Amino acid sequence: MAQLFEHKLPDYTFTERLGQGTYATVYKAYNKTGARQVVAIKCINKSSLTKSATENLLTEIAILKKIKNEHIVQLIDFQWNSGFIYLIMEYCSGGDLHRFIRVHKRLRELVVRKFLQQLAKALQVLQQHNIAHMDLKPQNILLSSMRNPVLKLADFGFAQYLREGDQASSLRGSPLYMAPEMLLSNHYDHKVDLWSVGIIMYECLFGNAPYASPTFVHGTRNAPK
Q: Quick check: 41 and 26 in contact, CB under 8 A?
């Protein structure tokens, strides 16, 4: 029996749910025309969006429309109706890096080195456009496939435009991957992304983040001073 979905877009057929968050649900779908391209569609409930969440969404759309790179997930199109906003994205069949680490446990150094090179290329492109991701973590890094995966950065909702010399102070991101200056509520610059990359690479090598604290408070206390 075919599964029924509440979402309908004229050119797409929804096939399965991939994941769900606070504001959005992501589905696998395919384009009914042409080559029947497989895509991921992020369905965002307008009624659940706060002012800050709306601003984050607009930032994400603007960045993904602007940046085209093999290591940054592609925004193919976006549509909306009275109840939802739909981001039609490149589909990455390998899932996210968090799942990949859980499956493979400790990754081989050769694989981690390859992942680091790919992340560095993505960050280089972002820096050229004065963009800091601000929420780098395994869950926000997608894999093109499970075999010979290519990493692709996703989820740019917390991203900020930071030029060389600019500083920010707002708290954003995920505590386990935040740089100490963010956790301690100090001013910071775009280089906080580099700290997050270091934590991610550690997790790839050893299977867990170095500061695997269950709460934000413990994370703050354990962060290097």
A: yes
